[in-house]
Specification:
Blueprint (H helix, E strand, L loop, with lengths): L18 E14 L2 E13 L4 E9 L2 H14 L2 E2 L12 E5 L2 E7 L6 E2 L2 H10 L4 E7 L3 H13 L4 H8 L3 H14 L1
Parallel strand pairs: 7-8
Antiparallel strand pairs: 1-2, 2-3, 3-4, 5-6, 6-8
């Protein structure tokens, strides 16, 4: 039997650099006929600090395998978050996932990330630097992270609003300015 070596063994794929953070790692058990079966459950948040973020959940008999599965799941479910020039979001948004509700507001430059728990981790890994967030309802780590993702997915930029309403940006801007000038 002959072993064939690859000529381009040091070829690297161009995969973007993602930061990941383990939010929750726990040992769970299931009672079976023969006794209890112990497994590990991991919740991981993955982001590139430039607008892409995702949350993944992985379960396995080994902790390292659970982390790998959660990371793969998070990378599968990445999506782009619209970020403004001052590293914030375009408008206020509120979303619910299960019993968890999250309220996210844009903030001035220099404010920082004012949030707690898994909401803070999601916002930081998304690359948002000036933002306010509040968890309402349950304190479930997984559901709060997913509620934050739902809220971030609801965000719209002015370009997408104009495209949805089938009007030009110039007309849209003039309408907004005319409403503020009347006040």
């Amino acid at each position: 039997m002959e072993i064939i070596e690859k000529k381009n063994s040091n070829f690297k794929y161009n995969e973007p650099a993602f930061n990941s953070k383990v939010v929750q790692m726990r040992r769970v058990s299931k009672t079976l006929k023969g006794g209890k079966k112990l497994t590990f459950s991991a919740v991981i948040i993955v982001g590139d600090n430039h607008g892409k973020v995702g949350v993944g959940l992985g379960r396995a008999n080994d902790a390292n395998v659970a982390v790998d599965r959660a990371t793969a799941s998070a990378k599968k479910h990445l999506f782009q978050v619209p970020i403004t020039k001052n590293d914030s979001i375009p408008h206020i948004v509120q979303a619910k996932f299960g019993a968890c509700e999250v309220l996210i507001k844009p903030a001035k430059t220099g404010t920082g990330v004012i949030a707690g728990g898994s909401v803070r981790t999601v916002l930081e890994l998304a690359g948002l630097k000036n933002i306010l967030a509040k968890q309402l309802g349950s304190n479930n780590i997984i559901n709060n992270a997913r509620a934050t993702l739902v809220a971030l997915s609801k965000l719209q930029t002015t370009k997408t609003l104009c495209k949805d309403r089938s009007i030009s940006f110039k007309i849209f801007r003039n309408r907004i300015l005319s409403t503020y000038q009347k006040v």
